[in-house]
Amino acid sequence: MSYASSDTDSVHIQTRKLRPDEDPDSRIVSATVSMATDRHLVHSVAVGPSTGLWEQFKDAVNDIFFADQPLRPYKRFKGKRRVLAYIYYLIPILDWLPKYNLELFKGDLIAGLTITSLSVPQDLAYAKLAGVPLVHGLYTSFVPPLIYAMLGSSRHMVIGPVAIIAILLNSLVRAEFDPETDGASYLSLVLTATFFAGIIQLGLGVLRMGFLIDFLSHAAILGFTSGVATTIVLVQLRGLLGLNRFSNHTDAISVLKSIFGNTDKWNWQTIVLGVFFLVFLIVVKKISQVKKKFFWMTAIAPLTSVIVATLFVLITRLDKHGVKVVGSIKTGVNPSSFNQIFYTGKYVGVGFKIGVITGLVGIAEAFAIGRTFSALSGYRIDGNKEMVAQGIMNIMGSWTSCYVATGAFSGSAVNYQTGGKTAMSNIIMSIAILFTLLVLIPLFRYTPICILAAIVIQAMLGLVDLRAWYLVWKTDKVDFLVTAGAYVGVVFVSSEIGLLIAVAISMAKILLHVIRPHTAQLGNIPGTNVYRNVQQYPMATSEPGIVVVRIDASIYFSNANYILEKILRYVNDGEDEAALTDGIPVQFLIIEMAPVMTIDTAGIHALEELNAVMQKKGIQMTISNPVGGVISTLKAGGFVELLGQEWFFLSVSEGVQVCSMMMKRNHLVTGNFKDKFSETV
After folding, report:
1. What DSSP element (H or E) covers 389?
2. What is the 3-state secondary structure (H, E, C) of 172-218?
3. Architecture of the domain whose range is 10-48+516-676
């Protein structure tokens, strides 16, 4: 479409013959307006170059799986250099290690040793929480961090056991085996779940399907994390109270029954010792939060508590008075566990299910941690590379007596605060853990269980972020429902049900936005050519006789009829207002389609139906600013020809100019558009 330029605004009226099945009363004049002055120019809507089905498919695949263009920096290389660059991409340590220097090593050494002092007691505590022998917690902080240091993209994330994964394994595996009566089978299923968690993570990374993690929204993770933290605190009361018998279930009702149904079994020495060190840990954390220069106290407080409590029990022999201690722990490096995994049999499916849950949760936690500290340091992490790294380390970990490992927030925070610069801090921590496994393990024999419980409880208290809950409530009530649903599901049923509830509500929210998209009536901001939502901008004015509507979503079969009904409602409201005020009747409908990215056949059919309704009302329908893909689809579907290309405008402002000019030039200030041109037709 082109418009001739002239010194004056002009309107050219075109007529067409009626179709045999067309109602004579519905005939509408098609008008082409050429209005080019020294101030205004009406532009045509361009139809982009047509692309074949194969090109469209390739573009869609690239948008879904390669939106981050991971290999773009390496395209400038040729031959062997390109191959070498790809290898560096797959194994990042080969890229940064040759550039490593003494200054970086100093920061990583201090950070690595500091996080070791935090990791050792937490590893023992989380292994107890997971229901596996305590030494497996240390195993999990030895092998996986070494592998991650070679393959991961985060410089600050510390790898090891975490409480959320531990309680998930405990609750899910305990449904099949009791660790106290069948510890070998319990451990085998844990290792099987770890193996499949790695397979899932690696598969998602290789297939570049990291976008699936986006379905675990911030609100879902917040509720899930808070629920798991609450559950862990309740479960850890067993160790803090010195109870021997306890429920195999992790829901709040069962746990509380076990706690208050056995009050006669509470051990007061255990309670005093555990509560004392719990208060100590909480106070130290508060001090470090208020006085930032004492941040290191948070890192050494758990190990200090373990050392002091162990010496106290050893000197006073409280283990003879009902205070449960860790006991003997096997020394040495990780033994092979390849043959302990269920590769066949009925527990393969169970292990796979648990692996999917723990693998996805582990990846979600790692993403959150990695993005947090990369943003603070001004670099980006590669989500798909992270999944590959986590997958390989968990597969290898399952073969070396480790359970599911992921990023640990507390350790990562300490690593960042103490000056860690690269993944070398993970390697240093692994070496320190190896020394602990070979030399220091016997020193933990008299460590009281209540201290490990206190360490876990203190760590979990920080995961229930009430401020974040309040912010979600203020921001989005549906998101708050997601958060609350996840929390209630985890606390009162089980962790997997809580996660399922959160994902289900999140999906329902997405579906609601798709099938009930936002639309708005637009008005002109005085003194500008800008048109905005009249609800958001009350000062925006509507042009008499013209209704401008914006569609804020793609048009699919699932929402086409809803959008049609909403537009008709805006038109009907305009007609009612004109009738009540004796104003200019609605003569033109302008649909702003800039936000509409795609439209399907159902959407085209809805527009055709809308156009037919408008014709019967004597209203000319127009389209403003459709994007390239949409105008191409409309043209291919025959709608451009049906409506007339002259009724497609580059902007709302130009559409309003044309429609207003037509009403003025043809004396449409009063009366009906159709009737005014009946003689011409």
Report:
1. helix 383-398
2. HHCCCCCCCCCHHHHHHHHHHHHHHHHHHHHHHHHCCCHHHHHHCCH
3. 2-Layer Sandwich (3.30)
Other beta carbons within 10 Å of 244: 11
One-letter amino acid at 502 equals A
Enumerate residue ranges in the chain where pLDDT < 70.
Answer: 1-43, 48-53, 55-75, 666-681
pLDDT tens string 534-567:
999 999 998 899 999 999 999 999 999 999 999 9
Q: Quickly count helices (H) and strands (E) in the chain.
A: 26, 10
Choose among 224, 248, 225: nearest CA to 500.
Answer: 224
CATH 3.30.750.24 domain range(s) in the chain? 10-48+516-676
**Contact between residue 361 and residue 164 where contact means Cβ atoms under 8 Å apart:** yes
Kind and range of the H or E run holding 159: strand 158-160
pLDDT value for 57: 67
Counting Cα atoms < 13 Å in the Cβ hemisphere of 46 gives 4
pLDDT of residue 217: 80
Q: How far apart are CA 471 and CA 284, in angstroms?
A: 27
Given this model, what pLDDT does residue 37 score?
A: 35
C-alpha span between 228 and 460 (Å, rounded): 9
β-pairing, 10-14 with 588-592? unpaired
Contacts of residue 567, defined as CB under 8 A and 6 or more positions apart, other chains included, come to 519, 549, 551, 589, 591, 610
